[in-house]
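Hi P.,

Sorry for the delay on this. The queue was packed all week, but I finally got your sequence through. Input first:
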Amino acid sequence: MNKIIGILASGLIAVSGLSFPATAAGKAPESFSYMPNIHGAMRARWEGDLDADRSRFQLRNARVSLDGRIHPTIDYFLQVDLCDQGTMKFLDGWARIKVTEGLRFQAGQFRMPFGVDPFRAPANYVFSNRSFIGKQVCNVRAVGAKITYDFPKIPLTLEGGIFNPTSISDHTGWNSSYAYAGRAIYRIGEFKIDAGMQSLRPDMVRINLLDGCINWTGGRWILEGEYMYKHYTNNAHKAVHAYNIWGDYHMPVKAGVFNRLSFQGRFDGMTAHSSGKRNEDGALTTTDPARNRVTVGATISYIRKPVWLDIRADYEKYFYRHGVEPALGHGDRIVLEMVLRF
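Then the structure:
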């Protein structure tokens, strides 16, 4: 631990010794203002569990965010969910400094730099419900710091950070170990390749994850495949394999105020999963059973920046192992949803 603290301290000292980058001759400085940008996202839905013959309405999210650049090299971001299924949650709060060209240092509370689908915000979901990768296997915000570097001559971005291992609801605890995450993003033509690692210790067992993703965007198509591996040290729980493969096709339309129609399909799944918490006997519990899912849907949209409105319909078909009964809300479903972002 002392070595880790020494490395982090050395990095901070190095950052503090660097001056702000000077503006090149003839190049206008980046704009900045004390007036924040305000953005929001609302998701209202009806969903029905076809296996249990139950249904419900929800205001799934009502998020508001503030961001701004108060200096050519300093920006910030604040985000709160005023309603997450009826609960208010503070999500993000960070400040970032551009140390030199291509190098940025960020500190506060935010998502650990790992994974692709876990990083999608509700305003950018392709489907009404997140993949198993993004919801069950890896859904981690933490308090800490990270460094991001964009290479000047190749389309490669590297991110790495160190974080508290504890919940974001409590920042007062003292830690004997930390959580870590790193990510590499490479772009070539219409492809984006993402790979990363993450190491957590939510309880007495350290959990290590690896992730790889390929995204292709061409014309009206988007195709993506992501695989995540989750390993529990000391054989505390069987390793988890999770995968998410999806596609989206969109076309322009003229239907009242709507100007785009899109169709989506997804296949995702995971093996038996544990969140890393122990039961009364001290063993890790399996919090999510193994399952696969096929999702098909369609979305009609109104897009006039900065306003984006989606009306979406999804059907989800679940596949469990023989003899496993799905819990309420985890069986075959229909979801009708309206998403507004601005």
